[in-house]
Design goal:
Blueprint: E1 8-13, H1 31-35, H2 37-46, E2 56-60, H3 74-90, E3 96-101, H4 103-111, E4 117-123, E5 140-146, H5 154-166, E6 170-176, H6 187-202, H7 209-215, E7 227-229, H8 230-234
Parallel strand pairs: 1-2, 1-3, 3-4, 4-5, 5-6, 6-7
Helix pairs in contact: 2-6, 3-4
Length: about 250
């Protein structure tokens, strides 16, 4: 069967540094990029071509500079350039989900106003208090954060989900107890949950019911109302076993 043009896309943005104008190293020396490879593999398996011949593109964004670099916001520039290129390649009406970790999650949140973007999944996101949220209006935003993260703040993530909800976004936060910023502790749980969230937002899979409920909260909801616990989600996993057991 001939393949049809891609029906949707996922752009993956790895982490980086607060400052650093040099380019990221290539290959295995780029540890933030290596950290996202299991997520990319899992997403490609979950979104491979279906019987109707359609497929979902899964692409990684290559940064020009390894740091955010203050007002330059270099990772944001790279994310927007990748979205523009994707639109030229596959069409201006193809829905895109942005998946980012740490600095990459910050770039994803900031780039969400691009017309191709339908949603954002942010892992251990870097959410400075002054970052804007109006660009998230009309988007689905699910942020996942370890309760023990010492690099980025889960409290700041919870605050951003509430601010974004008031600005017109549909938001949810999932807390991973016992995890870490690098997503090494409980790695299978991070990988499986992320795949479930991304495919759910794409419409190629099903979101856990509590996540759907949280995304539908009114703008006036308290921050804690939209915050879920991964281990409690596990108890409500569907018959397909979409949520991890470890």
């Amino acid at each position: 069967m001939d393949r049809r043009p891609p029906s949707a896309a996922v752009l993956v943005l790895h982490g980086g540094h607060e400052n650093g104008t040099e380019p990221p190293p290539w290959g295995p020396l780029n540890l933030p990029g290596v950290r996202m490879r299991p997520f990319v593999r899992a997403l490609r398996r979950a979104t491979r071509a279906r019987q109707d011949g359609t497929e979902v593109l899964v692409r990684q964004v290559r940064y020009v500079h390894r740091g955010w670099n203050g007002p330059r916001a270099d990772a944001l520039r790279d994310a927007l350039a990748a979205l523009d290129a994707l639109g030229e390649e596959a069409g201006d009406d193809m829905p895109v989900i942005l998946l980012g970790h740490s600095m990459g999650a910050r770039a994803a949140l900031r780039a969400a106003g691009h017309p191709l973007v339908r949603g954002v999944v942010g892992l251990a996101p870097w959410c400075p208090p002054g970052d804007p949220v109006t660009q998230l209006a009309g988007r689905d935003v699910v942020l996942v954060h370890s309760s023990r993260d010492r690099i980025t703040s889960p409290q700041a993530t919870q605050s951003l989900t509430a601010r974004a909800r008031r600005a017109g976004a549909r938001t949810c936060m999932v807390t991973v107890r016992g995890g870490d910023h690098a997503m090494i502790r409980r790695a299978p749980a991070w990988h499986r949950l992320t795949t479930t969230l991304v495919t759910g937002l794409l419409g190629t899979g099903s979101l856990p019911e509590p996540v759907t409920t949280a995304l539908g909260l009114p703008p006036t909801a308290e921050p804690t109302e939209g915050t879920l616990d991964l281990d409690r989600l596990r108890a409500q996993r569907g018959p397909a076993g979409l949520l991890p057991s470890s």
